[in-house]
Amino acid sequence: MELIEIKKIDSTSAEALSSLAKTIYVHHYAHLWKAGGMDWYMNEFAYPVSKIRSEIENTNCLHYIAYINNEAVGYLKINIDAATEGGDKKEGIELERIYIDTTAVNKGLGTYLMNFVFDIAKSYQKKYIFLKAMDTATLAMQFYTKMGYALVGSFRLSDSTFHLMKEEFRGMYILKKPV
Fold first, then answer.
1. What is the rounded CA–CA span in Å between residue 69 and residue 82?
2. pTM for this structure?
3. pLDDT > 70: what percent of the chain?
4. Which of the chain's termini has less CB crowding within 10 Å, N or C?
C-alpha cells in the first residue's frame, strides 16, 4: 500500500519546490518549446526560487508538495480568491498548478489531489473551483471531465510573452466545477 501525504509548505521550501517543479515540468512539457524556450520558462518566468518564495509568502496562494512513500512526486498551487472572467473572486478558487511526476502517474495521486483541492474549496466556502488546461492535453481533459469539471471558456497564450512556445500549444481551456 502506497502512503500518500500532502504537506503545505512555507518559504523555507521554495528551493525544494523550484527543483521539484522543474524536474516534473521537463518530463511533461519539453515538447512545447522552441529552442531556449523551456529554459526561459522554468528559470526566468515560472520557477525561479525568488518568484516561488514570493508566491508562497502571498497569503492568497497555497502551495503543497505531494509525497508517495516519503518521496516528493507532485505539487499544487492554489489561489484562494480567484474568479473566472466576470466572476466574483470571493466565490472562486483557482487550481493554478497540479503537477505529478511521471513516476507517480496512474497511482491514484491525481484523484487524491483533486479531492484535496475540493476539500480546501469547501473549507473556504467557495462556490466553484476552476483551472486552465492546454487544449491539446487530451488525457488531462479526460481526467478533469471525470473529476466533474466542465469547459466554460478558452483563450490563447499571448504571442508577446510566449513567443518561444510552439504556436500549436498556446490554446488553453478554462474548466470549472461547482463545490
1. 33
2. 0.94
3. 99
4. N
Q: Which residues pair with 98 in a beta bridge?
A: 76
- Superfamily for the 4-130 domain: Gcn5-related N-acetyltransferase (GNAT) (3.40.630.30)
